C-alpha cells in the first residue's frame, strides 16, 4: 500500500495495516493477534487499497466466475434459519425432491447455454424431520437424502458434460467420501463461528446444523479427504466485526492445515419478506467493503475471495477495488433460489462492469484453476477426465468448442481481443516489465516466459501485438511457404506415445485404418509425381517399424536420390536418427554423417513434443528424453545440417512446461545456430488414445494456440526468425490470427498430409500455391514461395507448382512382420543377406519370399 494512503489512516489502523502488509511481503500470513486488531480498524479505504494490491499480486487482471445451473434438489430442511426463504414445508412443495429426469432435462438445457457447473443445493437432512421426505426417498430406493444426491450427481456426470458442485450441508467422513466420487467440488457456508448466534432470539436458534462446531467439523473432514471446498461468512445477521474476523480465522486455520479451501465467500444478508428477519437492517456498502478487504488481508494474495454480484447491483467495481477476484456462479438459465429477489446480472453486463473496474472476466470451472491443475491430489479418478476435457492449460474453463483440426470459427471473445481496431487497456506491472524487456531484445527468464503464456483479456492482446511488431521488424510483410510432399512410409510403430493417432497395429485397425509399410518403388513414384507437380522438397517420416534399422533410412535416401536427383530431402526425426544409429551400433553423430553422405539435406525437429521430462514421462515414456532429443539436434548442427524445431502442445502440459521447452530451443540455437524455423503443432485430440481414455485436454484453446506463436516470436527474438503456423491444425481463420501474432510462414503445401488427419483433423490434405497466396493476401501480406532453407525458387519450379495436375491415389501397401524393401528394383540383390539360423532376414532386410500375414503385425501403439 502506498505511504500516502497509510498516512491518511488512523494511527491504530495504520500500524496494523503496515504489519499486515509487511507480513505478506515476506510471504507469511499475519498473526491472529494482528488479524483480530483489524476489527478496530475503521479505515475501509486504506484496507481496500492494501487488499487490492494483494489481490493483484495473486490474480493480476483476472476476475473469474462459473457459468452454472442452479438445481434446488429439495427445499425441505430440518433447520429453521430466521432469514431463509429457501426452506419450505412439505405442504408448500409440489414434490419433496426433484426427479432425476427433471434434473437431466435442466442440465441439457444448461449445456446448450454454455454452462459447465451443476450446483446441487438442498436443505439439510429433511428426512430427520419430515415423514414426506422419508417416504419419497423410500419410493426411490434410498434411505437418506445424501444417498439420493450421490445418485443424481452420478447421473449428471454420466449423461452430461456438467461438473457437479454439491452443497449438502453437514456431513460425516463416509458421506464426504461418497460424494467426492461424483463431484468436482463441494461446499458449506460457515456463515459464522459465533456460538452467540445460536442462542434464543438469534438467527440460528433452533437450527442444529448451524452450530459452528458441526460445520467446522465438516470442513475439517473435507480437508482430510482432499476435497476442493467452498466456504465463507454471512454478514449482517447480528455478528460483530470481531466475530467476523474470528470466523475468517477459523477458516484460515483449516486451510493452513489442509489447503482445501478453494474460495472464501463474503455474502451480505438481504432481508426477505415472510421471514423472522424481514425487518432486520441489511449491512451497508461500507460494511461489505470492509469485510471483503479484511478477508483478503487475512488470506493473502492467492486465496479466491468471492462476493455474489446479484446481491450488490450497481456497485460491482467497488467490490473489485476491495479485493475480490471472483463473482461466484452465475446462471443464464435458473434463478438464485437462495436469494430469489436478486436476479443474476446478464453476463455481458457483468463483463462490462468488470472491465470498468480495470479487470477481465474469465470463466472458470466449479473447481478452481489451482486445484484442477493438481487433479491427482484433489479429484477422484472418475472426475479427472471430465475436468481435463473442460479446462485449459491454466485450469480455467474452456469457454468454447474450438479445437485444433476442427472446422470451427474463431471464438467470438478471442476475435474481440485480437481486433486491431480496439484500444487495449493497460497490463499488469509484471507483464509490462516483461514486454519492455522483449522490446529491448533482452533474454527472458523461464518464469517470465510462463507469465506471457498466462496473459488473458487485454493482456493477451498486448502480447500478440508485441509479437507482431517484432515480426514486422525482423521479417517485414512477407509470408513464405514451400511446395512439398509428405511421405509417411509406415504407420507401424513399437513406441507407445500416448497422444499418437497415426501409428497402427492390428488392434487399432477398426478405429484408425489398417497398418501399412510402403515399398521403395512407391516412395520413388511419389517423389517423381511431387517433382512433376512443382515440389522442391519431400518431407519423410514414419513410425518406428520393429524391422527398421539405420540401413532402412539409408536405403530410402538412395531411392529418393535415384528417382529425383534434384529434390531436397527433409527427413527423419531425432527419434528415427537415434533408433537407426542404435541398430547399426553407431553414435547419433556418426549415423548423421552417413545420412548426410547418402543425400539427406535437412532434418525435421519433430518428436520433441514438450521438452520437459515431467511431461514426457507421461506422454511418451519410452521415447527419447529431453537430453537425448537435444543431443541429436546438437549433433546434427555439428555435422552441418540445418533443422527445424517444433513443439506439440495442449494435452497434459502447462505454461511452465512450454517456457522450459522454448528456453531449451533457444539455448541450443545460441550454441549452434542450426534451427531455421520454429513450428508450433497444437495437439489434435479427436482420435488420440490418451484423449479417448480421458487423460488429456482437447488440445490448446484458441488463445493458447495463438500465444504459442506470439511467445515464440518474443523468446527467439533475433535467434530464430521464422515462426511457422500449421494450416492443417489451425485452419484458415486460425492461420490468419497467427499471422497477426508473430508468424511469418505457412509451411508446406503438404501433398498427402496424413498424420494430423489420422488424429481427426478436417482441414484437408493440400493447400496449393494459389490457395496459399490467396490466404496470405487476404490478411494484407505478401506471399513468397521459398525452398526448405528459405532461399529462392526457380521460375521453372514455380510454374510447375501452379500448373500441377491432380494427385494419383496413393498405394499404402499392407504392413507385414518384416519391412518392405525400400530399394528400387535392381538394387535389392546386392544387399540382401539372411541372418544365419535365425529364420528371418538380417536387421533391416525384408524377406521377399515370406510376407507376414496381417495378424502378425506388431500390435503396438502409437508415436509420431
TrEMBL record:
GO molecular function: 4 iron, 4 sulfur cluster binding; 5-amino-6-(D-ribitylamino)uracil--L-tyrosine 4-hydroxyphenyl transferase activity; 7,8-didemethyl-8-hydroxy-5-deazariboflavin synthase activity; metal ion binding
Domain Radical SAM core, chain residue ranges per copy: 63-308, 479-719
Renumbered residue ranges of the record's region Disordered: 813-864
Pfam families membership: CofH_C, Radical_SAM
Highest taxon of the lineage: Bacteria
EC numbers, comma separated: 2.5.1.147, 4.3.1.32
Cofactors, names only: [4Fe-4S] cluster
Keyword set includes Iron-sulfur: yes
Gene3D superfamilies xref list: Aldolase class I (3.20.20.70)
Record keywords, A-Z: 4Fe-4S, Iron, Iron-sulfur, Lyase, Metal-binding, S-adenosyl-L-methionine, Transferase
Pathway given in the UniProt record: Cofactor biosynthesis; coenzyme F0 biosynthesis
Catalytic activity line of the entry: 5-amino-6-(D-ribitylamino)uracil + L-tyrosine + S-adenosyl-L-methionine = 5-amino-5-(4-hydroxybenzyl)-6-(D-ribitylimino)-5,6-dihydrouracil + 2-iminoacetate + 5'-deoxyadenosine + L-methionine + H(+); 5-amino-5-(4-hydroxybenzyl)-6-(D-ribitylimino)-5,6-dihydrouracil + S-adenosyl-L-methionine = 7,8-didemethyl-8-hydroxy-5-deazariboflavin + 5'-deoxyadenosine + L-methionine + NH4(+) + H(+)
TM region(s), chain numbering: none
Low complexity bias spans: 826-842
Family matches, as NCBIfam families: CofH family radical SAM protein, F420_cofG, F420_cofH, PRK06245.1, PRK07360.1
Family: In the C-terminal section; belongs to the radical SAM superfamily. CofH family.
Function: Catalyzes the radical-mediated synthesis of 7,8-didemethyl-8-hydroxy-5-deazariboflavin (FO) from 5-amino-6-(D-ribitylamino)uracil and L-tyrosine.
Xref: HAMAP family: FO_synth_sub1, FO_synth_sub2
Protein name: FO synthase
Gene that encodes it: cofH
